[in-house]
Amino acid sequence: MYCPVNTKTKIMATIGPSSWDDTILRGMFDNGMSLARINASFADFNELQRVSTQLRAISPRIPIILDTQGNKIRIKNLSSPTLIKDTVILSSETVSKEVINVTYPNLHQYVTVGSEIMLDDGNIRLKVSSIIGSDIHCDVVQGGLLKPNKTVNIPNANLPFPILTEKDKADIQFAVQHNFDFLCASFVRTVDDVLSVKNLLRNSNVGIISKIENREGVKNFDDIMKESDAIMIARGDLGVEMNFEVVPILQKQFIYKCRMAGKPVIVATQMLESMTSNINPTRAEVSDVANAVMDGADCLMLSAETSTGKYPLESVIAMHKSILASELVMRPTPINGNTDAGIDTDQIALSLFSISQKLPIKAVIVISDNQSTVGSISRHRFNIPIYVVSSHLSSIRKNDLYNAVKTCYIPNLSSDRDNAVKDAVEHIYALGEFNFSDKVAIISGSSIKNRKEDSILEITVVKDILQ
Q1: Who's near 135: CB < 8 A, 6+ residues apart?
Q2: Does position 18 have pLDDT exceeding 60, yes or no?
Q3: Is 310 a catalytic residue?
Q4: Contact at 8 Å (CB) between 458 and 352?
Q5: Cα-Cα-Cα-Cα dihedral sign, residues 432, 438, 443, 444
Q6: Residue of 10, 37, 72, 189 marked catalytic
Q7: Which is catalytic among the residues 68, 151, 269, 373?
Q8: Per-residue confidence at 3, pLDDT binned at 50, 70, 90?
Q9: Taking 60 as the threshold, does the pLDDT of residue 449 lie above it?
């Protein structure tokens, strides 16, 4: 068994039939998987319940993410894989052996002759040749084997969608009731989409990860990011909705903006795609992982590789090795910008970065449940670990998304600041992470009544706290 050193960049793995086995799932967790994603597009409530229970049994520390289906058009009523060549007819109404049905009602009203339609994330490309009633007749520009339930994209069509589908609302309610840690909101277009999800999540601890995967989401990125707990760059649909050559540029821009704001950012889709059927990744895929790490992503996601692929465990190991190799040659990179933590905390974090370059600081210890504080520190991409200490498991799981963060769960953490510091250092020392002579930086909340910002920075030596 591969025994990994912890990477700073986290790995999110999608759980599906390939990874349902307890041994596989535990192996993925032991070999680098930090977060688990369940895709509601392919799971009913029974499966969501079963898999989330299974994950919690393996470790209560694993953050669980429910990814909503969103307003995605799919192929329906296709019972088996069908070869698409020459011509094809699409329809939301006509039921016939000669017609392939789609889930969007009255689709024929929103396309014109010459419109481009892409199936299966763009692997199959069609051009509309004529529209007869509800039947959309298409020439096949690029054919292929179409499997049931695959996606339908129409890049330049302005299709009206509800902000939330009834399925999404039900799935969000399920995530709240079953204490999921994050909800991925799919196909976010505007800040109103985020606020609608927030409204359904009110009075819960579920965080919102907004997926950027269409033109409107790109256009409104800044407003969307501001209201989100994290961002996912969903390159699959993004590369279909927009020209594929701009996706790497958008990826770098979005990562930089998220770092400035102290918001976690996830790079997703096709990172190790070939490992769905091959035991080793391509060199290009390894380079893609390395570039995302060097861009400063907090987390990288595996999709089909771990949900339906042949080599789920090997995919996690390959990604872990690739991440680690890149991190070993990276230097810490400070960044400017205001975060939700407030200017005091932002300045303390920036000062700490400067201090860490001049003093041999072993680690940063954060005693706070304020995720904004963690984001303000993590965004500078320290080359030393950031230990976040909390007595709340939900807070522990949320903070696991941040780059370089190691979480420490202390159930009976003292409410007194000095005692909490001692508890934290003793806990981390007992894990073998510190020596007596190590110098550490501690950030904690103020003892001043009604002071809400985390504003105490202390540089000290481990032995001075423990003795």
Answers
A1: 89, 90, 91, 94, 99, 108
A2: yes
A3: no
A4: no
A5: positive
A6: 37
A7: 269
A8: low
A9: no
**Secondary structure (DSSP) of 210-248:** EEE-SHHHHHTHHHHHHH-SEEEEEHHHHHHHS-GGGHH
Q: What is the pLDDT of residues 22-77, one digit of tens each?
A: 999 999 999 999 999 999 988 889 999 999 999 999 999 999 999 999 888 999 98
Taking the C-alpha atoms of 340, 343, 345 and 349 in order, what is their torsion angle to the nearest 10 degrees? 100
Catalytic residue among 8, 125, 211, 406: 211
Q: Check residue 15 and report its DSSP letter.
A: -
In angstroms, the CA 299 to CA 63 distance is 13
- Given the residues 26, 61, 74, 198, the one annotated as active site: 74
Assign residue 133 a region (left: φ > 0; alpha: ψ between -120 and 50; beta: otherwise).
Answer: left
- Determine whether 74 is an active site residue: yes
Phi then psi for residue 160, to 5 deg, are -75, 130
- Counting every residue, how long is the chain? 467
Q: Write the pLDDT tens digit of every residue in 262-299.
A: 999 999 999 999 999 999 999 999 999 999 999 999 99
pTM more than 0.85: yes
Instruction: Give the model's pLDDT for residue 453.
Output: 59
- Whole-angstrom Cα distance, residue 72 to residue 152? 8
Laid out side by side, the sheet with 439-444 consists of: 405-409, 386-390, 361-367, 439-444, 456-461
- To the query of whether residue 331 is one of the catalytic residues in this protein, the response is no
pLDDT of 355 > 90? The answer is: yes
pLDDT (tens digit per residue) in 332-345: 999 999 999 999 99
Residues 6 or more apart whose CB falls under 8 angstroms from that of 232 comprise 184, 209, 210, 211, 212, 265, 266, 268, 301
37 catalytic per annotation: yes
